[in-house]
Design brief:
The structure holds two protein chains of two kinds. Chain A is α+β, with helices and mostly antiparallel strands. Chain A has 20 helices and 31 strands. In chain A, strand 18 and strand 19 form a beta hairpin. By secondary structure, chain B is of the alpha+beta class. Chain B has a five-stranded mixed beta sheet with strand order 2-1-5-3-4, with helices on both faces. Chain B is globular and about 45 Å long. The chains are: A alpha+beta, B alpha+beta. At the A-B interface, helix 1 and helix 18 of A face helix 1, helix 2, helix 3, helix 4 and helix 5 of B.
Chain lengths: 787, 157
């Protein structure tokens, strides 16, 4: 590009959002208190499944300071129920009312809402609302939910089977019948929840004079929320503003539309006063979307040399009580079968999936979506096959990877991989670890009676998805584009506005790096604005590792448009042909004549001064809005290697070493890439060893506090060694690949494989996650003949 | 209603609130210092950690009335003369924060920890900050930041 300033893309630039977040000046939803604010609280169902016979709020309404109570009937008069529609008949569409109508379907479902002068009063009032329930039989788990005698959660569906889909390539029956070895397993990945440190919350204000609604929300997707509110509340989109300023973590949990957002808008519109709801941790564990909860029965057939001949899998997912908007109940179960073939050449494949409704919180997207279970399954099968064939786990992978010459490669589930570095990343991991030495160390430890194991995992993830495929199968909402508006003001400073939203990823920094490089100014002169539908061009938000690819691509396009215009204006001011103008050090100069130059600031001022400063016929102004659609999207890949020790006395698993070799294409900011990997791996280790949402047979949540749902602290997370490969994406502008989720995709399987490797002397396989000390204890007892 | 008199970040305040009001709500709502965050309201996540008479404490499981006569330090009090505190600087340099929600509690916890252990090893740092949950960073940037800030803070004493 050559503008004389040091290139920012690729540099470890300290984050631009940090000074405000480090000094307590963040702008999270709960930090806002407009005049006349009312505080909301929700009454939630204590029953897993019940008919609502009667609600009496009179005792609540007489409390001083209580302003209003809403029930499901009240909301239904002002807002349509949410229906996460799907274009495919594989998904049954069901209603999700903002407040329960007639029936509750899981413990924690919102039944009534109070607005009061303080949060304390609102919670007092909640306790005075009397609800008479007629309990119904509980749909307690996904397997019993499919039995003919099971109660049905949604009458309109007529069945608890909400999702049913199949991918087939080739004759898998014949392939498995002819295989030298078939390994089989029934895998169980239990229910998980994202746990953002900031609980969900929102603040709605309705201005009667201008008929405008402003919703501040802890949302990842302000654009999506704005679009759907327009429909549900029957208001034009241009009268709705959704703001997601600072958001305290998302990880997919805040990517869906939530009932509380709609109810809060209804309450604010009805009262003409601002209304704020801030969830507490109990509400977060009860009513934020959960993840995974899948049973996967799978078999893998291989030749004697370990090459794969066929893969067959049956996935069953407990999707909870409701299909969430816009992703639908299909997102997790269908993604799992989409990604099961992994980075391998799988000539025959049959993947069947089912999503089953039960009396639990809805299943939604969480970091990795479908891929953490898919990788747990395929990588577990690869290790089982390797063990039986006497192959090293790295060797069986190297024999099966999609080869460099195979790209672009269409996977057996129909996904196109643009280019990846499967072999190179595994070889680099072996080298970084001095793998033979590590195996020798393991052998010595094993001889000394210690249970030490090494787990190797390779995966590929689809990122930066364009318009060719919906982010969630059959979803009617388009998620394939994002836009950037880049605007110079007359002083030469730049504002860059995006429809994506940042909730920890550092987009204010990475997007500023890209913009600064494109338009030739220092990063200090670029201000990135995001997460506000009123300010940004049309967009949906941040999810599915898309923001740097899509918004970054749009920034490159808009930056180029501006740059072209700057050269035209500079040429005019310097009386030279635009082709002879070069950018250098925030100036434009005539090639070979560095003294004949104008500053970027002079160009910007000229752009707004009018015709005399501009080439004939050139429109004044210096701003551009451009949209970008990467069409298929791109892919990131990585190899993870974990070394663990299982304590013989306590069955505690200690991670001794953790190495990641990741390839996210061209890195914009290695500091931020490392941070995403560290955080993702920590969540994956939590998923492998600690975190589990547990319901009892009555549908009561047993893991309703952070003492019961155990999130890793600094002591449970090891030092994580990260290495990079940079294979630029040949299809995405800038060569960027999305990489926000990968750590969580690889880590559960790496830990599971390492534990199984450690326990090889006992012949133990790990088929259930999280593998908590009590589960491990039982596996060991059984293997040693005591269980 | 009860009267609460206290000093926060060297400034004297007086407020009236219900006896049941949580200290963190008093700090955020009555004093308008929204840098202290509420993450769990049951004393586990540590996002609400402040310094209470010179020691780290969880303001979500204390009542405002318990702080009558106390001296508090919140994240807003770390910056001096428009300059980031060395610990804040280290967090920025080592990417010790992402979403920033746990950060105020993490900073005050780390500050308290380094007061009691001025030259810790990594194991000790991990234990020292384990009272605060961070979901974004995997703690690695935080450990690096605390290690890097330790000598600077020790030299200031």
């Amino acid at each position: 590009m050559g503008h004389g300033l040091p290139r920012l893309v690729g540099a470890r630039v300290a984050r631009r959002e940090d000074p405000r977040l480090l000094t307590g000046q963040g702008s999270y939803v709960d930090d806002h208190r407009p005049p006349r604010l009312l505080y909301a609280a929700f009454l939630r169902s204590p029953h897993a499944h019940a008919r609502i016979v009667r609600i009496d709020a009179s005792a609540a309404l007489v409390l001083p300071g209580v302003v209003a109570v809403l029930t499901g009937d009240d909301v239904a008069r002002s807002a349509k129920p949410v229906r996460a529609a799907s274009k495919t008949p594989a998904v049954k569409t069901t209603s999700f009312p903002p407040l329960a109508l007639d029936k509750v379907r899981h413990v924690g479902e919102a039944v009534a809402m109070v607005a009061a002068e303080s949060r304390y009063l609102a919670e007092d009032a909640i306790e005075r609302i009397v609800v008479e329930y007629a309990p119904l039989p509980v749909v307690k788990d996904m397997e019993s939910a499919l039995e003919p005698a099971s109660p049905v959660l949604h009458d309109e569906a007529g069945t608890n089977l909400l999702v049913s889909r199949e991918f087939v390539r080739g004759d898998v029956d014949a392939a498995l019948a002819g295989a030298a070895l078939v390994v089989r397993e029934r895998f169980r990945f239990h229910r998980h929840t994202p746990v953002c440190m900031e609980n969900r919350g929102c603040l709605a204000e309705y201005a009667t004079g201008s008929e405008t609604l402003t919703l501040r929300s802890s949302a990842q997707c302000p654009g999506l929320v704005r679009d759907v509110l327009s429909d549900l509340l029957d208001m034009p989109e241009h009268r709705i503003r959704v703001i997601a300023a600072d958001v305290g973590g998302g990880f997919g949990a805040k990517a869906s539309l939530y009932p509380e957002e709609i109810a809060t808008c209804v309450m604010a519109r009805r009262l003409g006063r601002p209304v704020k709801w801030i969830g507490d941790r109990r509400e977060d564990l009860l009513a934020t979307t959960h993840a995974w909860d899948e049973i996967v029965e799978a078999e893998l057939g291989v030749n004697r040399d370990g090459t794969i001949v066929g893969l067959r899998a049956q996935v069953t997912a407990d999707v909870g009580a409701y299909s969430i908007y816009p992703w639908t109940a299909a997102i997790e179960p269908v993604q799992t079968i989409s990604f099961l073939p992994g980075p391998y050449r799988v000539p025959t494949y049959q993947g069947r999936t089912r999503g089953v409704a039960t009396c639990k919180a809805p299943l939604g997207p969480y970091r990795g979506v479908g891929r953490p279970p898919a990788v747990f399954v395929i990588e577990g099968l690869m290790d089982r096959a390797a063990r039986q064939l006497g192959l090293d786990p790295t060797e069986i992978r190297l024999r099966n990877f999609i080869r460099d010459e195979d790209f672009p490669y269409k996977s057996s589930s129909g996904i196109v991989w643009d280019r990846a570095s499967f072999t190179a990343s595994l070889l680099k991991a072996r080298e970084a670890l001095d793998y033979p030495a590590l195996r020798a160390e393991q052998a010595r430890a094993r001889a000394a009676g210690r249970w030490i194991g090494i787990g190797v995992v390779s995966y590929v993830e689809l990122t930066g998805i364009g318009s060719a495929i919906p982010v969630s199968p059959g979803m009617p909402v388009s998620t394939g584009t994002e836009a950037a508006t880049i605007r110079f003001d007359p002083s030469g400073k730049v504002t860059a506005v995006f429809g994506v939203a940042s909730h920890g990823q550092g987009l204010e920094t990475t997007l500023a790096q890209i913009v600064a490089d494109e338009v030739g100014v220092p990063i200090e002169d670029v201000r990135v604005v995001h997460g506000d539908t009123e300010l940004s061009p049309y967009g949906t938000g941040t999810y599915a590792s898309r923001s740097l690819v899509l918004a970054g691509g749009a920034a490159i396009l808009a930056g180029r448009s501006i740059r072209e215009k700057m050269l035209l204006i500079a040429g005019h001011l310097l009386e030279a042909a635009p082709a002879d103008i070069v950018m250098t050090d925030a100036r434009c100069a005539v090639r070979g004549l560095p003294d004949r130059s104008v500053t970027v600031r002079e160009i910007a001022r000229a752009a707004y001064t009018g015709a005399r400063q501009l080439p004939k016929g050139l429109e004044p102004g210096l701003e551009a809005t451009r949209f970008y659609d990467p069409y298929y999207g791109t892919a990131s890949n990585a190899t993870h290697v974990a070394m663990v020790e299982v304590d013989r006395a306590t069955c505690e698993v200690k991670t001794l070493r953790y190495v990641v070799v990741e390839d996210c294409g061209r890195m914009v900011n290695p500091l931020i890439v490392d941070g995403q990997v560290h955080g993702g791996v920590a969540q994956g280790i939590g998923a492998a060893l600690l975190e589990e949402i547990v319901y009892d047979d009555h549908g009561q949540l047993l893991s309703g506090t952070l003492m019961d749902y155990v999130v890793p602290s600094a002591c449970e997370v090891p030092w994580i060694e990260v290495h990079h490969l940079e294979t630029p994406s040949p299809v995405a502008l800038g060569g960027f690949r999305g990489m926000g989720e990968g750590g969580t995709i690889g880590a559960p399987a790496a830990i599971a494989n390492a534990i199984a490797d450690a326990l090889t002397p006992l012949g133990i396989e790990v088929a259930e996650l999280p593998v908590t000390p009590d589960r491990l204890f039982r596996l060991i007892e059984r293997a040693e003949g005591r269980g | 209603m009860v009267t609460v008199r206290l000093k926060v970040n060297d400034v004297a305040h007086e407020g009236r609130c219900e006896p049941r009001k949580l200290l963190v709500d008093f700090i955020r709502e009555d004093l308008g210092l929204t840098g202290t965050h509420v993450g769990c309201e049951h004393g586990i996540c540590g996002a609400c950690t402040i310094m209470f008479n010179g020691e780290a404490a969880r303001s979500c499981i204390m009542l405002a009335v318990q702080a009558d006569g106390a001296e508090l330090l919140t994240v807003e009090g770390l910056m001096r003369e428009g300059k980031l505190h060395p610990l804040q600087e280290a967090f920025r340099e080592h990417h010790g924060l992402q979403c920033g929600f746990c950060t105020p509690g993490m900073l005050l916890t780390a500050l308290d920890f380094l007061r009691t252990n001025p030259s810790p090893n990594d194991r000790e740092i991990r234990e020292g900050i384990s009272a605060v949950l961070c979901r974004c960073t995997g703690y690695q940037g935080i450990v690096n930041a605390v290690r890097a800030a330790a000598p600077t803070l020790a030299a200031r004493r």
